[in-house]
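Worked Example 4.2. Consider the chain below.
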Amino acid sequence: MSVSPVTGDSMPEHTMTPPMPSAAPGTAPNATPTAPVDFLEYWKTDCREIKTFRGHSHGVWAVAFSPDGLTLASGGAERLVRMWDIETGRLLRSLRGHTNDIRAIVYTPDGQTIATASEDRTIRLWNPNTGEPTKLLFTRYDHNVCSLSLSPDGLMLARGSHNKDIKIWEVTTGTELMTLLGKDQYDHHWSVCVAFSPDGIHLASGTDIGKIKVWEVLPSGEEKVLHDGHWQRDNEDSTETRGYFIEDDGGFQKPMDYWIGAMIYTPDGKTLITGSRDKTIKLFEMPKVVETKCLTGHTGWVRSLAVSPDGKVLVSASDDNTIKFWDIAAGRHIKTVKGHTGGVRQVVFSPDGKRLATASWDRTIKLWEGGAEPAE
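Applying the procedure from the previous section yields the following structure tokens:
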């Protein structure tokens, strides 16, 4: 009997160790003995720009790390998805197919599929290794798709768009799984932003007027909570306040002032963080959606949020050309980084949390690193 615990113990050892080097070639040897990184300290220490990826001819809306942390995918107003080798900074390939701005890019956790969402009203799935398009997802009444969220298992893809409903697709087959529609049949506001909870049970969505909804995804697809979020009650809520469309301007004359630009859950799923056109970032305790903090400091629309893997650090990107670091627990501003000359439309952490990528309207993607500078 005494033998079995030993073999039981040593088995995981053997299965665990070999994959390490392949996971992160540069860091594996020295990363194994060290303690897990405290990202609060790591990003407080420094945030250096280590690379700039140039090649986009127009502003960049979206950027994503591959799960192995070796590749970046980016897309924007020039309608191409560009894949970059992070180490060399080389452009690996450009995927063409979208006919309008690409607004969102996500990798499935296995790294075998990229989903891109565009203002051409479609979502495209690609094989990132070959650049082959694999699926095209759209329905007849779709409008501009501006947000994507994958369930944690990578099987369901939710889209936020200039539609009032939220569609969820099955990634492997490309079939439409469900449509989430609010309880209020007269609420025609767009669900422009979506985020799956880390347990995959709930989906949070934000609207063009700043309200927040929480849905139970499976089995019911039911709206569980409606919260005013960033919306201010003193504004009379009518179609008139939505503004009117101007063709040559390519947008609304007076769009919603509280439009939700970004939503993200902390890894433990206990906090939902939203960023809005009203320049604020709000933290809500989940699942009841109780507002706990409101972070101010940005002077432009908050377009993107990222949370470090340990859930301690929040990074926000804004049209004011900056990214800001926040201590989530304290609700305090840590630092502001200016590097871009245009609005920053997306910020994402690398899978290990040690790097950040930012996509900007200045046509570049920048890679940032924290911690102490490596000794030469």
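The radius of gyration is 21 Å. Confidence is low (pLDDT under 50) at residues 1-33, 244-254. Compare this with Example 4.1 before moving on.
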